[in-house]
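Quick board copy: two proteins, each given as sequence then tokens.
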Amino acid sequence: MSEHRRKQSQPQGGGRAAARRGQSGSSSGRRAAPGGDTGAPSDGLYQSGAAEERPYGGRADARRAAQRATGGGRRRAPDPAGPGRGRGRQPSGGKRLIDYPRQDKYGWQRWMPSWKLVMGLCLGFFGSLMVAASVAYAFVGIPEIDKTAEAQNNVYYWSDKTQMVATGGETNRQIIALPEIPKAMQFAVISQENKSFYSDSGIDPKGIGRAVFNMARGGQTQGGSTITQQYVKNAMLADQSQTISRKLKEIFVAIKVGNNVSKDEIMAGYLNSAYYGRNAYGIQAAAQAYFGKKAKDLNAGECAFLAAMLKGATYYDPAGLPSVDPAATAEANQGRALRQMQDTLNKMVEYGHLDQATRAKFTTLPPWQNPRSNTNLKGQVGYLVDLANAYLVTNEETTGISQDRLQRGGLSIYTTFDKNKVLALEKSVKAVQEANIKPEQRPDTDTHVQFGGASVNPDTGAIEAIYGGEDSTKHFTNNADQTGAQVGSTFKPFVLAAAMTWGVRDPKLGSSQAQDERTIVSPKSRFSGKNKLKIQEYDGSVWKNEKGQEWLQTNDGNVSLGEPPNYEVDLREAMRESVNSAFVQLGMDVGLDKVKEAAVSAGLKPNSLTGTTFPSFSIGISDPSAIRMAASYATFAASGKQRDPFSVLEVTGEDISYKHETLTKDAFTKKVADNVTDILKTVVDKGTGTAAQLPGRDVAGKTGTTDGNKSAWFVGYTPQLSTAITMFRYDDDETNKNREFLEMFGTGGQEKIHGASFPAEIWHDYMEQAMDGLPKEKFPEPEPIGEVINPEPSPTPTPSASESEEPSESPSPSPSQNSPSPSPSPSDTCGAFGFGCSDGGTDSGTTEGGDNGGSGVSPSPTPSNDQGDASRGNSGGLFGGGNGSGGTTTE
């Protein structure tokens, strides 16, 4: 091995540790003692000829050597001038940001914070709150007005645009502008609630503190909220919970509102959104609820009274609310309300809002009205509102107003109702009723008597007046609408119009005939007026029901009209004297489908037409409403122009804008309509309707009375107005499940009620007032129409000339009643089914015909689907059942 690779010799004692010690120049002990005070740390390493190597020692020797180097001894006693005792922790010599626990204190004192620390923490806390409040204020916005705070009534107006009533909607509220709110009302709430209203920023810290202090010492509970806070709570915050978070939000929003919204806007918003009791939200509703007047008409005493209601109407409403709280008696509430009212007035004087002389006038509670179910709807108003609402919702596709939208309120609804006409119609009905109907004197005949009526403008279709019953808050069925009362002979003009429009069928052809196969009928055409006439099909065969029974049609009073043996009368006379047999046969010859079509074209609703496949359909077994009857006759008044009746002219709202547009249809030609009018004018001039004559005016109309004398009608018109009046007896108690139309024999002291009696009298008295001041217009002269069917025999064999301007090339067919069956002698009893047929009929709803019904006492056929239901009094079928169809005896 080379020399330079040879391992060096190790010191005695060998091993790597010894080598390390050798390299460091240390002695053979484990640790060298530190050098003396004058020795350099490196002396032992770098000086040659060092002293003899120190003996090797252990760790304890090294520790002792170190102690000796620093002065020796085990441990020095604490410095007498030291800060602590015993073995306490020595100060570190540095400063802490927060000296807690305190370094210079011992025991429990170490845990007591210094005043500097407390002050600092408080300043930090409140500073943080201010920062947080500033951030919250910066981020909070002014919420939108809550929709419930804007929910209000619908306002209904008369046709002259004066207000009728404010009602409906989800909330009894009508928002008004601040100028409509008396200053006294504004100062009353300011004096009582928030005297610093015009100077504060939306909150009142002093007021909040005062409220807390008073409640803490057991004083009167009071709120610390300002008017601004209450406005925010009522109108902007849907959350009404009593939580700290909601209250803080209310405060921040109130400050924001106070700094950004005008005081006038806040005041108006508060008074319009506050709750005053009696389901009245807002000052306008409250004024109506307690005093029956508008807010602008309130005096200072009434304003102070309503300000008291804001404290909580349960305990201040003078009517009392013991059902809510037994302590809220009327006497106790009146005492509280008076004291609160006086306190408010005194404060108004103290703060300079009221002079002492005015204040002295109000020392007692103002006259207040008892709470009642919406008295604004009493009389006819409730019926008018219901009718307008029904029109809007039924015609949603046109109006854009659903039931839900109507319920939300806030709509201004301008109706067609003429206030003067409504009052005149109500007055006319009550005058006749009070003078003639005496239920106390005649309980068996005069109880449950009801009237209904309606007026429609022929030029527009506008419903100008109705009579729905004695009072909408007592009688809940609108008698101007469909009641189930049959219209009787007032239906005959539609049969006449059908005969003049489509004509009678050729008896030699099939039942479905084209127009050129028919013959238009002239008013001079003659038909049989024979009582108990055996009704025939258009082709001359005897009409029979599905059971094979014949129909013998009676007339009112069981009287035949015309000269024997055929008893023929022309259609003018038949209408004038209301001859049933002539119009029943005419309807069969024309076709009942055409009669129905004429009625619907005039304006009747198809679902109000009953028994359309039976002969008696032509004499009024259906039950249209008074409104629809007036509107249908208005079609004749308008020379055949049909306009649906309507009750709303215009609707405005935040999201609604609707205006009615009148749609006109050609129901009949002018020639047809004017001829019908001319014949109906004869009824008033010389026939059953003379009681309806208006001196100097043209009047056309028709009376109607049904079998069993269970309803009576008069429907008539002038060129400017069409009116229908109905009368019937019907139990108003809805809990009576077996109620039905009652007979009116003896009612009002009369042997029998006809349309010519009370209904015509009411029509006359009302129309006299309704037409006052209007020009006396004349009906147009009718043009000749149609061919004379079965003309009156002339002394010469020369046939009568046709009235038709364009004579038909086909010969006039012989009417099916040209050869009626021989009239029975007085001793006859209507043939095989004749027992008792000469007596008055009934329509009591049995399955057998009335005594004077079509075939006398023939059993009723199985009712068809179009005969209605029992609820409308039409379930008894054709022969004198619940619909009185078989035995309908009309005048």
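And the next:
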Amino acid sequence: MGVLNRLYNMQLKRQGYTIKGRVQGVGFRPFVYCTATKLGLTGKVKNTIYGVWIEVQGDDSKLNIFKEMITNEKPSIAQFTSITMQSLGFQDKETEFLIEESSDGIQYTSLISPDIATCEYCVKELNTTTDHRYQYPFISCTLCGPRYTIIHKAPYDRHHTSMSSFPFCFTCEKEYNNSLDRRFHAQSNACPTCGPQLWLTDHDNRYITYNSEAILLAIEYIYKGKIIAMKGIGGFHLICDATNADVVNTLRYRKNRPDKPLAVMVPNINIARQIAYISEVEIQKMQSPECPIVILKAIPHSLPKNIAPDVSTIGLMLPYTPLHHILCNTLTKVAELERIIPALVMTSANVSGGTIIYNNDDALIRLNTITDFFLFHNRNIIVPVDDSVVCLREDNIGQSPNWHFIRRARGYAPLPITVKTLKDNTPCIIALGAEHKSTFCFTRGQDIFLSQHIGDLSEPETEWSFCQTVKHISQLFGFSPEVVVCDLHPDYFTTRYAAEFGLPILQLQHHIAHGYSVLAEHGHKEPALVLTLDGTGYGMDGTIWGGELFYLYPEAVKGKSYEQGERLARLSLLPLPGGEKAIHEPWRLLSGFLALLKIHELEGVDSLVRQLWKNSPERWTIHSAIREMVSKDKVKLTSSCGRLFDTVSTLFGLCDYITYEGQAAIRLEHQQDMSCNESLTISIVEKDSIYELDTTVFLKELIELLQQKISVSILARRFHIGLVEGLADLALIGSENTGVKTVGLSGGVLNNQTISSLLPKALRYRGLTPLMHKNVPSGDGGISFGQAYWASMVLA
């Protein structure tokens, strides 16, 4: 008999698999266990510092089936970046397959999963009255729930998360150890007996009630026109009834957010269809595990205009946590009785574009003058993460949907973006990004780890959060950077912060970083042209840049940190009187333009501008001062495309004062008469050894057309078309001079749907190949990505 056993064992093999990627916190180990057990294989699986390690033993045919199943039938949210197999020595006495305890290590290379929207199975249990997790606001399983926001350190195991404060009850532990259960090794598993709890207080932290009663009372308060600050998965939201214009006004007043669009949460797609026009592709995105805010075309009059007063779109999202589902379901019942649309304003609880507030004590201090009530819970948020915001781009490039990230955060961070053209042995780099819409990046081989959106680095709290997140991600993934990259601007916080690392520093100009960002997304290392269109950035010639055409050559910068790219063209320079003040008061930009061209002396212009400024006579006094400054060359100049939009917007009387970034341009975009196909006169000149799209010709023509009583909506459309045609002509000149036909497009102006739709078409019409952002924001949230790519090419 012993001889037969030995002969049988000779036919058996043992294999080891190292699998890297998004394989922790996504139910992958339980899946491997179940797969091996069903096939009668023995061995083990565990988390390691590199990813997941599998040892599996059995006959050839079953081992082949095992490999095929773990590759092709893995959980939908699991992602492999690599899978390597090796032969191992056969273990004679092994009789079962086990999930082993995870290995700790000083360098952790596996990926941490982002937070995942509540899965359909948990939603069903949440609404089943006989289930012991019925209406429990922290239900989760291996397929969904918090991940990145609750992890202290890697690997992803319960004792490394904020769930370590909640020991399992008997039932949850039984589920955790049952290989046939959906919660088998679910690290965030909990129930009403052993898990987190929530409670309701007033704005002075006076306790009212807890758990299910707290939710019911919160909905009652919302329906009565109150504002609730609710702690979610990655931070606090401010919530109110989206159908109540009065409470929306109250929220805007208290938060000092008079005009910026507010995001809205609805219970389901059927309700969303009552508020916005939605395509099937957009529905899929809203229902995805990432569950971002999706910008959609609004149905007029479906909600109060003060939800998004400047635009014809609306940002909608579906519930992505159990607490959201309970709130929305309860609200739906109330709405049916009152015959109103069940919709909640769900806006991030932050101050002046800063980091979302995520700590209970901090929320009490900073939100008590905004909110009427707090809905707290006691599961600690380790990493604050805001909602992601996306929109479907209408550029028709490629066959798959073209999504445009306005903000990349929850559901996506901290997953890396792989750039195949980078080398595996490139030194680890940290890139610190821009001052506004700040993000940072670490690199590891071909992977660039782009952080979540953190906020504008204009407040000490946001600076602190930025530094803490850098430290956390560095520790989480075991990064040991050898080089730090930052912007050229000497006054940026990130420029000062770079010096604190004690590492070699590389600096890259802001708009060139935009250019490398879009090239990196496409793994493009050959020479390319890039149009970068944004607000303002520190130029290399003493002016403020923001409308540039660059010639970039990623592969040629190796070992040459001084090589960044060549500036071939720009928009014409316009005055920026008062610097930062003109950004917030764009009427000053118009004043500077009038002073520059002295067209205040031209017939009819004086009366036109007096009409615009009729309610602000003091502007004429300031205008006189600006005129003198311009005549004496004592004013900064800018080629900024964003500032050009602001100038035109204020010329049309659309926006004199800015209450949020991009407001004047947004109003101009949404003023267009889309039936118009006319352009403006385009003039390209060569000036100071650089080509220039003469935007003063645009402005003069617009003034003349205004005097002819042409409608503002027609002129807004003609401006957009004229700018697109002029930029495309500029790119064509660049192509003819360099022989390069690839044109990248980057910068915050690409958030403008008209520009991002028409400009690629105009480039293709001229025989050029446009490259657009896909997974990285085109605005300043993508700057760090471009910095990281450029530095990787320099150090390759």
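Board note added afterward: DSSP finds 24 helices and 32 strands in the chain.
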